[in-house]
Amino acid sequence: MVHASGMTAYVSRRALCALFLTVFAGATGTAGSQTLQEYSAEARFQLDFHVPDAALAAMLPQGFMLNVATQGAAKDANIRVIFVDRMTINGPDGKPVGKTGSNRLVYLAAPVKDPSGANAQLVIGGLTADPADAPGPFGVYLQSTTHTMQRSTSSGGSGPAIDAQDWVFQAASGEHLELHIRYEHGVGNKGMPADTKFYSAKNPGVAQISRQEQVLDILRNVTTTPPDRVKEFSFKGSGGSYAKLFDGTEKVLSWDNIVWLNRSVMQP
């Protein structure tokens, strides 16, 4: 478990959803030989970790190798824990997907090189609030029997606004991922749209292309050392298949607030 010290905060998601749906309205249905599966508008919080190498290596399919950065903001990170508020999920026809057209989840992804030597991400696990999303597209998501999420912003008129995020996910089999963080509200950098290939650790024959653009606000990073805006922080990862990854020796390397993310998911 990792800690720091304190403040609190509250905000609506409706306006953000409307904004993201407007962006999606101009997207196309296919790209080359890729088949569009869905669009999503998301807000995320990503923690970069270094976890025990041997425990992570045991989860890699044959032919895959870890591809850990040796410099920059992702230096030494061999796994990412990504908490996701999928505020709206829409099919190629623009209609909401599933019963609610939204979902909350957390997933674990490792930077790898695939058997061809190309850079990719390997999805090794996840906990999802929506029962219909388990085991999910990569066959590794567990239904979360406990799932709570709150994201908020507060401003008292003097001093910086304070953002707060609280996430708790737990599966019946014991896997548990929990994040609590308070930080000074900031302005992030918008990246250009980029494609990333994601593979399933359970079945590496399953892959998706994620085409996404995002605004990223790095709150704290041990390598690039930006101004530290984290006021309070705790994380807990434990239980079941995650116990060896989060055995108390794990180290957080970067605290990344992804303010918004627009994503198109395609089948290669």
Would you kindly provide a written description of the structure presented here, covering whatever features stand out?
The protein is mostly beta strands. It has one domain: Acetoacetate decarboxylase-like. It contains 2 helices and 14 strands, in the order H-E-E-H-E-E-E-E-E-E-E-E-E-E-E-E. The protein has a 7-stranded mixed barrel. Strand 1 and strand 2 form a beta hairpin. The longest helix has 11 residues. It starts with 13 loop residues before the first helix and ends with a strand. The N terminus is likely disordered.
Keywords:
mainly beta, 6% helix, seven-stranded mixed beta barrel, Acetoacetate decarboxylase-like, 2 helices, 51% strand, 268 residues
CATH topology: Acetoacetate decarboxylase-like
Number of helical segments with 4 or more residues: 2
> Any idea how many domains?
1
Q: What is the distance, rounded to the nearest whole angstrom, between the alpha carbons of the first and last residues?
A: 38 Å
- Main CATH class: Mainly Beta
Q: Name the shape in a single word.
A: globular
Under the CATH scheme, the architecture is: Beta Barrel
Mean pLDDT: 90
Kindly estimate the percentage of residues that lie in beta strands according to DSSP: over 45%
Largest sheet: 7 strands, mixed, barrel
Number of strands: 14
Q: Helicity, in percent?
A: under 10%
Helix-strand sequence = HEEHEEEEEEEEEEEE
Low-confidence stretches: 1-12, 15-31
Strand order of the largest sheet: 2-4-5-6-11-12-14
Helix/strand class: mainly beta
**Rg, please?**
18 Å
